[in-house]
Amino acid sequence: MRTQNKTRDIVLTALFTALITxxxxxxxxxxxxxxxxxxxxxxLAGVFLGKNKGTAATxxxxxxxxxxxxxxxxxxxxxxxLQPTFGYLIGFIAGSYITGHIVHSGSLTxxxxxAGCFAGLGIVYALGMVYYRMISVLWLKDPIGIGKLFLYCFxxxxxxxxxxxxxxxxxxxxxLPVLSLKEA
Length: 184
Prior knowledge:
This protein is mostly helical.
């Protein structure tokens, strides 16, 4: 039984890593920070796999990109850490963890699912925007103003991600009991 669970965990972690990769290539053009479906799949990784395996799936995705595989929206490679949007990738890892932690820390309620998804969203945007500002000031020597940063990297992108949070919560509520993936 343990071998079956371990195999299932490995397959699901790999599946979510692949889904996050696919989500990077589904883009909706928005100035400065591109809107992709990466957030949907990193959030669902936390919802379905829990904090540890969901974080592992997301971290594997980031490591693969840093190793040079073109899995990020703008390619891959270690130099990607100097891209202003790299902070969102760090945020995806932390967001998967927070989402999984909240969702799997009690009974499966819609409120808990929404709280987990929105907490993950907050972490992703906080880390993404701070990193974007830091790189634009320290590395690019072309600081983006706080107003523009807030407009382009939050206001224009967050409405779609709010809908993705709701979708993630709905999918979690319907599928977690059926798939028996809720951590004890």
